[in-house]
Amino acid sequence: MDKETVPGLLIKFVEPQYVDNFINNGELHFSPLGYFIDLENEYGDDVIGDKSEGARIINFDPKQSKTTMIIDDKEYILDPNDVNSINVEFTYDTVREWGVLSLCNLNAREDLEIEEYDKKTEKAVLKIKDNVIDDLIRLSDDNKRIPVVINASGLLSVMDSKFTQKGRNIRLQNVEYYPESIQQNITVDEFKADPGKIVFLKREKYNYQRESRIALFEDIGKNGENISIGSLKKCAFKLDPVTGLNNFRLNAIVKF
User: Fold this and answer.
1) What's the domain count of the chain?
2) Which of 32-42 are b and which e, b meaning 16 or more Cβ less than 10 Å from the residue's Cβ?
3) Contact call for residues 217 and 169 (beta carbons, < 8 A)
4) Which H or E element spans position 22?
5) Where are the alpha helices (DSSP H) in 58-215?
6) I want to staple 99 with a disulfide (CB 3.0 to 4.6 A). Which of 87, 215, 220, 227 is the partner?
């Protein structure tokens, strides 16, 4: 796990036919990044799909620097008065092949609110904020997918024994969201130092997803890879797809 990633309340939306296998056997499905790229490019799906997955983004301002184009071995200088901006976006083939599994990572301070509080014991009952539930419903495909609440420490313990100890290159990390107008979302030096970082960068339009993802830095094939890590019954609990998020409550000690 990335040292800066602090798992909060993890939620995974699972198709009904797969949810029991996910909990009982810990079957994790990793999809190649290329799948999400093609999902938006070919089908216009920009909820699950994202054409910029794993892409290096560079935005040039022609007024700030000399910009040229080469066509048929001839160089042409672009007039900055004729061009407002230039966007370059590309994804390495190797990155397209890497696998990811997405989770929602709710921040207790930002995404939950206190419903009940006992000052003497400092015990609180927390609920998910209404606006956060609205965002999560977008990921549930209008309540068709089953929300599964996951105890982060339990999941990490099982993952460690399955992946890390067996030498597979895997990482759990929060996604960072960047504005599309950014000069570049990752520099060449940053990419060379840590190529895997590019998997955890997404456009700002997706920040409602509050995503943490597990990345598997291997070629997992076009159809992805299913990996069973063992029972998650002690750390994963499914909720009702319609009422579960609204009815979910978390008991916690809160100090003011």
Assistant:
1) 2
2) bbbbbbbbbee
3) yes
4) helix 19-25
5) 93-97, 108-111, 130-139, 152-162, 188-193
6) 220
How many whole angstroms from its chain centre is CA 83? 34
pLDDT digits (tens, 9 = 90+) for 117-159: 999 999 999 999 999 999 999 999 889 999 999 988 888 888 8
pTM summary value: 0.84
The answer on 98 and 171 residing in a single domain is yes
What amino acid is encoded at 190 in this protein? E
What residues does 99 pair with on adjacent strands? 32, 216
Is residue 1 assigned to a domain?
no
Range of the domain at 68: 60-86
Instruction: Please say whether the beta carbons of 213 and 171 come within 8 A.
Output: no
Q: Render pLDDT for 13-22 as a digit per residue (tens, 0 to 9).
A: 999 999 999 9
Statement to judge: residues 158 and 77 lie in one domain = no
Q: Is residue 152 part of a domain?
A: yes
